[in-house]
Amino acid sequence: MSFSPPQDDGTVSITFQGKTATLPVLSGASGNSVVDIRSLTKELGLFTFDPGLGSTAACESKITFIDGEKGILLYRGYPIEQLAAKSSFAEVAYLLLYGELPSKEEHEDFKERLLNHSLLHEQIRNFFNGYRRDAHPMAMLCGTVGGLSAFYPEGIDISNEESRDLSAVRLIAKMPTLAAWAYKYSRGEPFVYPRADYSYSENFINMLFARADRPYKVNPILSNALDRILILHADHEQNASTSTVRLTGSTGSHPFACVAAGIAALWGPAHGGANEAVLQMLGKIGSKENIPDFIAKVKDKNSNVRLMGFGHRVYKNFDPRAKIMQQTCYEVLEELGIKHDPLLELAIELEKYALNDDYFVQRKLYPNVDFYSGIIFKAMGIPKSMFTAFFAVARTVGWVSQWKEAFNDPLRRIYRPRQLYTGHQRRDLNK
Ligand code: CMC
């Protein structure tokens, strides 16, 4: 194991019904120490109870570290602010996958690999034809990514490091093409293919917006902004979709199927679907005068209304990604010559209002990465329903990096949580 030795107070003892279990406390490189409860059930016959797994470390990982109190996010030790300012998405993807930033040659080679794998099998076009035109892009992504596993049956050989690496690169490379085609399909426009002279983000933008009937040139400010947005979303330790990918991977499933499961988990409004939900919410609020009424609804426990784009399971001070996102938002709007964006103005007012309200202060609820991303995407001309698909493209890097890491973990086992059963005792059929 890669843990350092337990600290001075290196054990926790639990006494139950006259028996005592002594459990080691393990320290990682940073962050909270963990109580190793693996012997608890054997020694005391107890399970632990942690709905939402907020106090449970389900695996070891060397990829991403978050300090939620201080608002720190590190990829392989590098602060997100530095990576967003100085690196390309391809470099960050390489870093997350392989552990170190690439040399110049490695970077070129990796970009070439991504490009070579960005095409889709022509038969995938038929998959899209099976969807209604108004299908949500996340539905199309889920289905087509899962379906791609049938095109790469050799990917099921997960015992082979090279095969795992190839699947990981294929997935990162093909996701923008799939997402862009989902968008094109919804508009009834011809699919656009990746181009060898474009970067990852340029290709993504080109495949979304280029049309057969007129020339299209990718605006570098927009592709740089997209690159940064993809970097900010690339990984976030053991979040719901990543845990889903790890869980699915723990059964030995095909990597494309694991990522399809991750896409399903990301879709929900509590997770990646929040960026779409923020714009819907701003649309519903409509204008600044309605903010107090809306906030009153959010605070009313019976209303089931949440302030979307606010709050986070781990960040309890600020989300460092939200700060960079807000800055990117200003840059994009300026580049696009948008002097006054009513949605941005409403969002800023709403943020101010919430940050001065006791309800949010006491619960340590701050804007998260999704609060501003929707406004940027909208300004770029990207429809609401595509927002979460962008998140999925970015997070694929994290999913496959974590999926690969899990295979080299000597502690790897199938995920199989226990439960606190509260249903009927045994009873017999009365007939
Ligand atoms: N609006 C109003 N109240 C909230 C919100 C919110 N957005 N988030 C949390 N609370 C309240 C919650 O009602 C609870 O109050 P009380 O203690 O009185 O019962 C308290 O804060 C703790 O909330 P929780 O639900 O236990 O927190 P959680 O860690 O389970 O949930 C969350 C985290 C992100 C799901 C939640 O904050 C939320 O639903 N936010 C809105 C959706 C959103 O923006 N999601 C994107 C997350 S960032 C992108 C990503 O990683 O996917």
Automatic annotation (TrEMBL):
<comment type="pathway">
    <text>Carbohydrate metabolism; tricarboxylic acid cycle; isocitrate from oxaloacetate: step 1/2.</text>
</comment>
<protein>
    <recommendedName>
        <fullName>Citrate synthase</fullName>
    </recommendedName>
</protein>
<dbReference type="InterPro" id="IPR019810">
    <property type="entry name" value="Citrate_synthase_AS"/>
</dbReference>
<keyword id="KW-0816">Tricarboxylic acid cycle</keyword>
<feature type="active site">
    <location>
        <position position="312"/>
    </location>
</feature>
<feature type="active site">
    <location>
        <position position="370"/>
    </location>
</feature>
<dbReference type="GO" id="GO:0036440">
    <property type="term" value="F:citrate synthase activity"/>
</dbReference>
<dbReference type="GO" id="GO:0006099">
    <property type="term" value="P:tricarboxylic acid cycle"/>
</dbReference>
<dbReference type="InterPro" id="IPR010953">
    <property type="entry name" value="Citrate_synthase_typ-I"/>
</dbReference>
<dbReference type="GO" id="GO:0005737">
    <property type="term" value="C:cytoplasm"/>
</dbReference>
<dbReference type="InterPro" id="IPR016143">
    <property type="entry name" value="Citrate_synth-like_sm_a-sub"/>
</dbReference>
<dbReference type="InterPro" id="IPR016142">
    <property type="entry name" value="Citrate_synth-like_lrg_a-sub"/>
</dbReference>
<dbReference type="Pfam" id="PF00285">
    <property type="entry name" value="Citrate_synt"/>
</dbReference>
<dbReference type="InterPro" id="IPR036969">
    <property type="entry name" value="Citrate_synthase_sf"/>
</dbReference>
<keyword id="KW-0808">Transferase</keyword>
<comment type="similarity">
    <text>Belongs to the citrate synthase family.</text>
</comment>
<dbReference type="InterPro" id="IPR024176">
    <property type="entry name" value="Citrate_synthase_bac-typ"/>
</dbReference>
<dbReference type="InterPro" id="IPR002020">
    <property type="entry name" value="Citrate_synthase"/>
</dbReference>
<keyword id="KW-0012">Acyltransferase</keyword>
